[in-house]
Amino acid sequence: xRKTLFFTTLLLPLSLTAQxxxxxxxxxxxxxxxxxxxxxxxxxxxxxxxxxxxAFTYSGxxxxxxxxxxxxxxxxxxxxxxxxxxVGGFHISPxxxxxxxxxxxxxALVPGGQLFSLGGAxxxxxxxxxxxxxxxxxxxxxxxxxxxxxxxxxxRNTRHxxxxxEAGVVFQGTPKAALNLRGTACVxxxxxxxxxxxxxxxxxxxxxxxxxxxxxxxKYYPVIRLGFGYKF
Length: 232
Known about the structure:
It is a single chain. This protein has helices at 2-19, 198-214, and strands at residues 25-31, 34-44, 47-64, 67-87, 90-100, 103-110, 115-118, 121-125, 131-138, 143-150, 161-171, 176-182, 184-187, 190-193, 220-231. It is α+β, with helices and mostly antiparallel strands. The chain has an eight-stranded antiparallel beta barrel. Residues 3-18 have low confidence and may be disordered. The protein has a single domain (22-231), classed as Porin, CATH 2.40.160.170.
C-alpha cells in the first residue's frame, strides 16, 4: 500500500504535465523560402515538433555575357523542425528540409547579329539561325537546416494568437547549373553549329562552370521568417 502511494505521488505530477501540454497549433508564414504554413505539437514543456511547407513563383528577365534569359524562380519545400526553448520564447530549431524543390529555369536567346561570349570566347549569333536554348539551376533535394527565433506557436498559457520570428540557414550545397544551347555561332564570317562543334561545346561547359561559381554563396541559403499562428 505504501509503495503504491509512493509511485502514485511520484508519477502524478508527470501525468498532469503531459496532459497539460498543448496538442496542436498552426500558423501562416512568410519567409525567404516563400509563403507557407506550419503545424506543431508539444513534446515536453520546453520543446515542440513542427512541420511546414513553402511555395513561391517569380518570373523575370536578365542578361549575362550577352545571352538574354527569360526565367522563372520556383520555390517549393517541405521541412521538419525540432524547437528547443532555452530562455523565455527564445529557441534553437535544428531540422531537415525533407524536400527541396527550389529551382530556377530559363529560356535563353541571343538575337541574330548580336555579340555574346561563352567561357571567355566571343561569338556572334547567326542571323539565319540565332542562338537559343535552356538553362536550369537546381539544388540537392534533401538538406539540413538550423533556425534561431523568438516566439512560441504553442504558448504554455491561455494565450491562443501568436507572432513568431526566426532566422537561420539551409545547408543546401552549391546550386548546379545546366546550360544547353543550340543554333549557329560565328567568329568573323566562319559559322559553326553549336551542338555539333566540340570546341564550342567546351566553351558552353566553361560558361556553365562560370555560372556555378557565381552562385556558390547560395550553398548556405539564408532564411528569415515571420509567422502568425493560433494554438487550438
